[in-house]
Input
Amino acid sequence: LDQLKNPGDFVSGSFIGLPYMVGRDHEGRIQAFHNTCRHHAARILPEGTASAKSLVCPYHGWTYSLDGKLIGAPRMKGARDFSPECFSLVPIRTEIWGPWVWICFDANTAPLSSSLTELEARLPGASLERLHFHSRRTYKIACNWKVYVDNYLDGGYHVPVLHGGLTSQLDLSSYHTEIFDRFSIQSCKGRPSSTQRIGDSALYAWLYPGFMINRYGPVMDTNWVIPLSHDQTLTVFDFYFEDITSESARKFIAQSLESSEKVQQEDIWISESVQGGLSGPAYDRGRYAPEVEQAEHHFHRVLARDLAAAVNTP
Ligand SMILES: [Fe+2]
Output
């Protein structure tokens, strides 16, 4: 929402091959559309953020208002039965939850917020409203998206082994996992001696299938896991801080981003290592560690349920 403050602000991207755009129109309404021109299917806005007065296709100049209506179609004179009102941009369902606009390509799925009541209690709006979007970092990883999600959901199992730097900031004996229908929460206390970054406690929420919310101290980062192919994954980190302007904040943010970068590089390295092992003949399946890997097991059960339902749908 921080990126969609003013009329004409747009964010566009693509999700599993589907180009989308989300923006605010002149009346202040937030809407999302398929980022596909109704004339010849070209992408209208480039990926990223934009501030637009209208939406002009770079191919033949078809022009849409901020609320998706076709308002300009050059050289269409003489086209029989051509009604511009039938060529509005195709809308995508949106929902606002927390500081985010969520889009949904399925018209029949239940609203997201109906399944997140418990998470809302743990991530109160007031604490989220204090945060400001700072920056985005993206990483392309040579692994299946599930490998990366598994790594996130192992209940801190890998933290003392793989992340030496992070371990010193967390009281790993307090690590615990709570399972809900379509999300899970892992949380952990910060070490009293730890830096300001983690603070008293860290909360790691995972929303099925691939959105992670990491909340600690004056910091939140989100990590959106997007499958690119069976063995390529894009992870999109967005960083939020309570203070993004003061001199001391800039130093804190730089340290925080550096620390996050180190953890991410370690997670990328291990995820690519696992992908290599999965592709080889020596591995079929492993075992869950019941003390810690509950959230991972939950992920696999929800996914298996959805895949079974999809396979059984004619
Ligand atoms: Fe990790």
